[in-house]
Fold each of these.
Amino acid sequence: MTFFMLQIQKDLKMKDNKPMKHNSKELEEIYNDVFAAAVEYMEEYEVQAIAATYMAIAMRLYKTTLDDKEYEEMIETVMESEVKPYKESKLH
């Protein structure tokens, strides 16, 4: 998953030639913290509700911080990326 986050960040960096703000270790730390919160939410809520909430937040953050072209390119990167499921087929 860190690769996926780095790929999006790299693609966005290439658009404006600004250096990447976070390294892979920092992104992994953020990912692990957010994932731990999601696992806690799964004790009370269905996985799909949590995933939809995180997706809605992510899309809104991207829409707020990117211009229209960058947003569309980020969506393309997401759509073209292979994401592997977690080892357990059901987390809840």
Amino acid sequence: MSNQITFRKWHNETELQGVVFWITPSEFEKYGIEKKDCKIWRGIMTPVARATEKPFEAYLTVTRHVAWKKTAKPHKCSAKCRSAKGHDCQCECGGKNHGAN
């Protein structure tokens, strides 16, 4: 089995499929993003993407991203995964629960 790493991004419980790009606070209104939903990176930018590849889908902010490593024996998902602070996951959830709390 290969140790392939899959990078996945989430907006709360919704996995995002679209391409991630960065916007500045002055562009929030243009993309329909509410300021309360944003995590500002380095004080100036926030990552956004769409939940699907559809061109008219609403943009969502990326609230967490995970580097999921597929292994022969993935860990059982537990509170340790849900409260994780880092980005690396090897759980059976595929990163869905990683850092969700």
